[in-house]
Amino acid sequence: MFRHRLRLIVVGLYLAAATVGAVVSAVTGSADALWLTVTWYPLDDSPFGTSSELDDSIVLLFVLLFATLMLRAWAFWQIFSFPPRGERPADRRVVWLRRLLYLAVADDLILWTLRDLLLPDTAVELLTLVLWTPLEVLFVLVLTGRSGAFRALALTLAGLNAVAVAASAVDELPGVRAPQILMSLGLAHIGWMIMIILGQREDGRWSEITVSLGRISLVLSLAGPVINFGFLYVIGTATGGLLIHLLSAFGVVSTVWLARSAHEVAVAPEEKPRGSPAWPAARQPS
């Protein structure tokens, strides 16, 4: 079925494009083509400068591009490994959560480029608000086996993050400055994520692999700013910038967590033993 071959097609096309980019780079002596086909944005638009400015780090550049290539190929394999078709979930909240999770994955992969190019910053922030607020609320509501206090805290964190995104949107308007304390409420997203991972762990629908990917994504979110600072101010701008790029490439772990969460959210707990990475067989209509 095409549904099951899609991961092979996507990963194959990505690796083929990167191979073409590598050949062009080898012929031209510039890393621009390989960078574009691996990362999907021009090297000149990166914070590291043009390829000619990276001559001293050219070996590191190609090593990091290869690492990024392998990481993204793994991510595409995971994202496009859809489970077998089953019956439509009876809970409409599950249906809409899965749709929003897939939309968030699409935004992480490619839609962010289009909206950042075509839309003003205020509109970008508003779209983020429209996508993530219902996503965060629905994710809390579909979790099973959690107390009312747990849900209330998680929903409060989702609300605080929504306030932060709305404040950021207002701050982008000409001549308007939103209170910094409101924008700092965006840290509530980290708390929301912790609550969701704890909920997934006890829910029964999500595999150990998916929960572990959520934990890794959380650690990367917390450690990223500190590591970035160290790369830039201890190692230096050019080389440090390249290492930051590699670290940012690990952002696909969060995207994979979202995708696998969407894949597994409609699976009944008894159909998916804890720790099982395999997809359950599709349910047969009665």
Automatic annotation (TrEMBL):
The chain crosses the membrane at residues 57-75, 96-114, 126-143, 150-169, 181-198, 218-236, 242-259. The keyword Membrane applies. Keywords: Membrane, Transmembrane, Transmembrane helix. This is Uncharacterized protein. It comes from Acrocarpospora phusangensis.
